[in-house]
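Structure in, sequence out. Go:
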């Protein structure tokens, strides 16, 4: 899973809503709009790579000699995996 910058995506999509000329109106098919939206999402840069962060956190935990640090890191990993929602 990767997280993207929603504000950057909205800015990109908003450009489609502006006509090329002041007096121009444009009609497009809904399917075309959805395909364009999916392509725009794919083109967005990754803002936060969950798997990469979890891998680094796990590596730090494995290289530690402190049980307190290990437990704290374990809990932090669980929070990141849970996305901070539903009590995690």
């Amino acid at each position: 899973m990767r997280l993207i910058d929603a504000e950057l995506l909205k800015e990109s999509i908003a450009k489609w809503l502006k006509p090329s000329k002041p007096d121009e109106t444009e009609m497009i098919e809904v399917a075309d709009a959805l395909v364009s939206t999916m392509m725009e999402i794919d083109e967005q840069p990754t803002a936060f790579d969950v798997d990469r962060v979890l891998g680094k956190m796990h590596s730090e935990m494995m290289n530690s000699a402190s049980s307190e640090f290990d437990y704290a890191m374990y809990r932090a990993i669980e929070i990141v995996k849970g996305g901070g929602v539903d009590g995690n």
